[in-house]
Amino acid sequence: MIKLEQIRICLEGWVPSTLATCDGNGVPNISYVSQVHYVDAQHVALTFQFFNKTHKNILANPQATLLMIDPLTGAKYRLALVFRRTEVSGPLFEGMKAKLAGIANSSGMQDVFKLLGADIYQVMDIELVPDSTMLPPPIPKNTLFSLREVFTKLGGISDLAELFAQTLQLLTRYFMVEHAILLLADNAGQKLYTVETLGYSNSGIGSEIPFGYGVIGTAAQQQTPIRITHMATEYTYVQAMRAYLQQHENTQSLETSIAFPGLAQPHSQMAVPICDDRKLLGVLYVESPQDYYFSFDEEDALVSLALLLGQLLLKLQPADHEASEVEASLPAADEPVSVAALSGSDNPAVIRYFSENQSIFVDQEYLIKGVAGAIFWRLLQLWQSEGRYLFSNRELRLDKLLKLPDIDDNLEARLILLRRRLAERCNFIAIEKAGRGSFRLAIDKPLSLIRVEH
User: Fold this and answer.
1) Is 270 exposed, middle or buried, given 0-12, 13-18 or 19+ CB atoms closer than 10 A?
2) What is the pTM of this model?
3) Residue 273: pLDDT above 90?
């Protein structure tokens, strides 16, 4: 018996599928299907775009026949289907909506292809159509081997920053991914922030996207992988942020935004949520300027990789007892040389902290905001008032002025983000790792700290 997962290539949409239905009187109707979506081993979903003849027929007679063609071998498959239900929201609906948007853009049918629902069918039988053309199948991808290699290499990593960088580099090496972004979720569960990128002229470290907007935000909100095989304008980052700002009327956020590094016109996009125990930790995003660049094989691989990343993200966050041991080994008072040694040298750099959104500006240039901005300001305050330059993660986590959450504060990731932004935007301040759970603040220029209240 032919299984649905064996012919998933037919569901990629390279060749239109044909759906046959009958009304209550047995009168047949044939229609082309713009999208057949794989749900699970026993179900597929078809788009319900308007109340057409097909939808009327299945409401009267739930049996249907679907003809699909393998685009690589020419083999034809006939599927016996039974209509079960229509979904108008949720992960499946949003994934089909995103994919349909790409098909609409590529065919100039944006005003026609509007998804109203996802019709779910149970697959009762699959048969190979006799005498259909059967070309030799292509050499299959060795996705399992590639995934094994990636898992092996990531499993030996003990540093969070190395995990971020190696994940994207391994995607290039084993899956030929040329553009990728790794984002983590904030504690409030409202937006994602970029911690690592690959293949872009600007890194975009620290750039943000809210839940529910674009392919990345939608994948985060629904906690489901979304793969688009054609250019879908409304799912690009630029269009997503424009829609967000129009809805929230918050143009001031543009003043403290970091340019997102994504392609201006991605023709293939895939966003995979990174979760642990059903809680969203982040999103792994890949894209390409080519149509149909990512198939079901890449989707399966990235979903599996995301499961590993979820475990490693939690594992590599230093535990409190580990950080406590590091803190106990720190000197009671750091050498108070930082401020005094720098006074009277160069003109001081002006560091402005805006308490309204915890944003930091260095000599009029935006650096960072939010939790990372608050952390940076606190470090500078301690450096200025106490001459300190050595710190531990635990003391920041327990600092009452920072008001970090007791759990899931992503402190290590925030410090990595801050370190990367400083390396890109500020050549006289650096955060250097001083051991597990500790770091050193290096400042090579006198600073003038200004706090701005609103």
Assistant:
1) buried
2) 0.84
3) yes
